[in-house]
Amino acid sequence: MAIMGLFEGIDLLAQRAKLVKFLLIAGFAVIGASLLGQIAELRGIISLDENAPLTGGAAAYAAAGLADLLLTLITVVFFGMWIYRAAANIVAAGVVGFDYTPGWAVGWFFVPIANLFKPYAAMRQIWNASHGGQGDELERAESLLAIWWGTWVFANIASNIALRLTINPASAEELRTGQQIGILASLVSLALYPAAWRLVDRITTAQRERLTAAHIFA
């Protein structure tokens, strides 16, 4: 495979950003629909129990849950492709002090324990490098990154706990606790999606406006 130049890479990043932002908007809408279903289920208005008929609100809730799962998987794939290209552009620009290969900027998401902090560290360097930073400047903190990463980690941990408690509950109380945690995870996700959208938008814009200039005048 031929090595892509910086300007071609930035064009590709912009194309991927459009798709990722669309998926994030769709995901936000689906999470909102799922949240309504979760609240209705907690209040006993609808039920997804195998003995209950899957009609009306219950059917809509089940469909929203399935759509959420599919959209999440698709978004993770394309978000990873966007991160890869953003990191590859920084490597192509020769930014001093950038510590991550494009593959590991994505790969750290899949390494247990390390995935709690390494992807954030990689994204912090991507953010700062995209905004013209080099060397020690790549470690500067950014509030949007903290919001994005904090909501991502919390929502994923809470969702996993909720799934474990509701998939085969030992008691009605355990089921209710799982449902409550699931609602909390969805609420946090309503903050995650806009934060991720802004992150993608601002890094993509910064690479077009600043990374190219820094490369030209380096």
Highlighted features:
218 residues, mainly alpha, 76% helix, 0% strand, elongated
Written overview of the protein:
This protein has 218 residues and is mainly α. 76% of the residues lie in helices and 0% in strands. The chain is built from 6 helices and no strands. The chain has helices at residues 6-42, 56-93, 102-107, 118-130, 143-167, 172-217. The mean pLDDT is 91.
The secondary-structure class comes to mainly alpha
End-to-end separation: 27 Å
Estimated radius of gyration = 20 Å
Total E-strand runs:
0
Strand percentage lies at under 5%
Q: Main beta sheet: strand number and arrangement?
A: none
- Whole-number average pLDDT? 91
Task: Please write the string of helix (H) and strand (E) elements.
Answer: HHHHHH
Overall number of structural domains: 1
Unreliable spans? none
Counting DSSP H or I runs of 4 or more residues, the number of helices is 6
Shape designation: elongated
Helix content, binned percent: over 70%
